[in-house]
Amino acid sequence: MDNSGADSDVALRLCDFVTEDFNRKADEPSLIVEALAPGERKELWRKLDIYPGGIYGEMMRATSSCLTNVDGYYQSLALKAMRMSVAMAYQSQIVNEFGMDILYGVPMPHKMRVDLGVLDPDYVNVLPNGHEPFLGFAMVALARKPEWQEKARETGAKGLRIIANIETGQEMIQRWEMDDAFYGFTGNWIMQEAVLASGCVDLFACDMNCSMPIDPMYAEKYNVKLVPVRRPGGL
Question: Which listed site, 39, 42, 60, 210, has its alpha carbon 20 to 30 Å from 160?
Fold first, then answer.
């Protein structure tokens, strides 16, 4: 990826490793948890029998236990939920951050334009919205190409800008520095209505989560193009 210092081979090898770990049975200890969790925690989890296997196996065990006449004991259900939580924290959240660091660079402090002032009606403003930066970074890579800037100018705009937004934007701005194409960051989730009501948003790419049910009403009133996005194969 441009401007990321990425090593795609490392990312792919990590992906293969974590995919195998995700699919371990619940009684097969997770290698990710073994590698990343503190020693004293792992010792306690084994003692309490909440040291997890693969996340898919833990999800199956926990959700199946909620069925009628399977496991109605609150203490047992709580322990199974804790076991699934440990698996989720290490196999999902931490690994996801590692993957993004490999692909897009480790977060570093730097200057960034923020707030509603980054929205200029003279430009085509595209806002990726959601929880993960993959779509947003792909948009930035395209917006940095002269042919896409020319397409925007052909419509009468001064150019094309990708504006980071809410959680997706937070991941983007901590990894890549701003330029003329990756112009800035609007703000957090509670600003979403104000962002759309500014009248400056041309395309709002609704990726994963956090696009409000009321957004279509704002899109109609303020002439915003809402584009629901779903990656092939889901998460």
Answer: 210
Per the document, the length of the chain is: 235
Percentages helix, strand, coil for the chain (3-state, rounded to 5) are 50, 10, 40
Cβ atoms of 1 and 175 closer than 8 Å: no
Q: How far apart are CA 52 and CA 54, in angstroms?
A: 7
Backbone angles phi, psi at 84, to 5 degrees: -65, -35
Map tokens 């930035």 to a residue. Answer: 140
User: 183 vs 22, 76, 119, 161, 193, CA distance in Å?
Assistant: 37, 51, 9, 6, 20
Sheet holding 203-206, edge to edge: 182-185, 160-164, 124-129, 203-206, 225-228
Both tokens assigned to 122 = 């003279």
| pLDDT tens by residue, the chain, 235 residues | 444 445 678 778 888 999 999 999 888 999 999 999 999 999 999 999 999 999 999 999 999 999 888 998 999 999 999 999 999 999 988 888 888 888 898 999 999 999 999 999 999 999 999 888 889 999 999 999 999 999 999 999 999 999 999 999 999 999 999 999 999 999 998 899 999 999 999 999 987 778 888 899 999 999 999 998 865 444 3
Residues 32/132, Cβ–Cβ less than 8 Å:
no
